[in-house]
Design a protein that fits this description.
The protein has 140 residues and is mostly beta strands. It has one helix at residues 102-110; strands at residues 2-7, 14-16, 38-42, 49-53, 58-61, 72-80, 89-97, 132-135. The protein has one domain (2-135). Helices cover 6% and strands 32% of the residues. The strands form 2 sheets. The protein has a 5-stranded mixed beta sheet with strand order 4-3-7-6-8, with helices on one face. Strands 2-1-5 form a 3-stranded antiparallel beta sheet, with no helix packed on it. It is globular. 18% of the residues are buried. Mean pLDDT is 80; it is low at 22-31.
């Protein structure tokens, strides 16, 4: 099975993305992110934080575990800016093992370089909590 992916520039880790369309649905267009699609992403391997767009995405064969679970999944973390008076809600993503719990996913984000900041540019203290942490099933 082929899956949308991108390669991290610093460590060359291959990040497998979930499909845009749920499996089993027929579509006339390829399963490809739109031109406006982007993710603020932190690599589990090297901690590099970068914005990725549709231009970074390619198709590669995917690995799955015996139970049909992907070896790595894309995680979405919703945060609220801790800067006094801001409170902007924003999302970060990371790749991590499918069996990770919330604290293990947040530990990946704490290693981010450059440091995590909200869309207004406020640098965030080490992340201890999040509004939500969930595995992403489909990119929509």
């Amino acid at each position: 099975m082929f899956q949308p992916t991108w390669k991290i520039a610093t460590c060359h880790d291959l990040v497998f993305l979930p499909h845009r369309i749920p499996e089993g649905k027929s579509v006339s267009q390829p399963d490809w992110p739109t031109d406006t699609w982007h993710l603020d992403f932190v690599c589990q391997v090297c901690g590099r934080r970068a914005i990725y767009s549709a231009a970074n995405v390619h198709y590669n064969p995917s690995d799955t575990l015996d139970q049909g679970q992907p070896a790595h999944v894309l995680w979405r973390v919703v945060l609220e800016c801790a800067h006094e008076g801001c409170g902007t809600v924003f999302e970060l993503h990371t790749n991590a093992d499918y069996h990770f719990d919330k604290n293990e996913v947040l530990a990946v984000l704490r290693r981010a370089n450059p440091a995590i900041s909200c869309p207004q540019g406020h640098i965030q203290p080490p992340i201890r909590n999040a509004r939500s942490v969930q595995a992403v099933k489909n990119l929509v």
